[in-house]
Amino acid sequence: MKKIAIVNRHxxxxxxxxxxxxxxxxIGENLEAPWVNIKEIFMQNKIELMTIDQxxxxxxxxxxxxxxxxxxxxxxxxxxxxxxxxxxxIVLESPxxxxxxxxxxxxxxxxxxxxxxxxxxxxxxYNLKLTNKIPKKILQNNKKKLCTMISGNKKVKYSGELxxxxxxxxxxFEKTCPEDFDLYGVxxxxxxxxxxxxxxxxxxxxxxxxxxxxxxxxxxxxxxLSQYKFSICYENxxxxxxxxxxxxFDCFFAGTIPIYLGAxxxxxxxxxxxxxxxxxxxxxxxLYNYLKNMTSIEYNNYITAIKxxxxxxxxxxxxxxxxxxxxxxxxxNDFEQSK
Length: 339
Hints:
Blueprint: E1 2-8, H1 33-44, E2 47-51, E3 62-66, H2 71-83, E4 86-90, E5 112-115, E6 125-127, E7 145-150, H3 163-176, E8 181-184, H4 201-204, H5 221-225, E9 228-234, H6 246-253, E10 257-261, E11 276-277, H7 284-292, H8 296-310, H9 320-337
């Protein structure tokens, strides 16, 4: 049986097969599903996937990197080259989180690259979109609240980043109509300081925030989202074609209408009638008036469109099981050619 190691940029997922353990993941729904599905697909074909701590390096036949490796694991690239072992890269994050992910330099470092980007090309590059497990139906319970935002409070200097836009949204609702907005996530109870000071946890005790709309951390995202008609759903960055993450799908599955910012070409993949584009509203006041004054007919049209999309074959293009088969087929071909 062939054996493949999976290496994540975040150390917590590289131990004890945590990558496949739903209890390890923070905010989100079924974030382990793509890797569980891929693991099952490979196992059915006599290839075992595991985290890199499970065996010594020479016992693995190949390594899959989830995002370009951090400094702790970057040395593996040269070592694997010397050992003659296959190296694969699955690009998950945008450059705002992992700046090396779309660098032209990585083309020669990996045997094959699987990426969300619609504008990253090479002989060894394959396009795919990752999301979580797609349900058969969306939740359609009675929504009693207007709008929410579920995200972590982060700060970074990068062109097109949307962390600061989330903060602008929060501050507008906080000041103008806190009764119609609830905030959830981590890091909102203290101010984000400039590096390197924010890495000292005790300093955060001296810079607390007092957001009236902040409701704290959550256990299950879908349980919260399903209570709201709308959710502010911004990617981490805008301006990258094809960068569509699980965020908008989490809203769909909860029967909540997303307010979206991110990939400019999202309508190539997801029908525009299923979400609200924030960039069509010059101000948050304009957006709020649109949400507040939406008729029941307009609202139900969105929900009907979401339901139709989730149940449609086009949505299945994002299904983690299908993506797992794509990855398996490419790696299988390499193994067969090396016989």
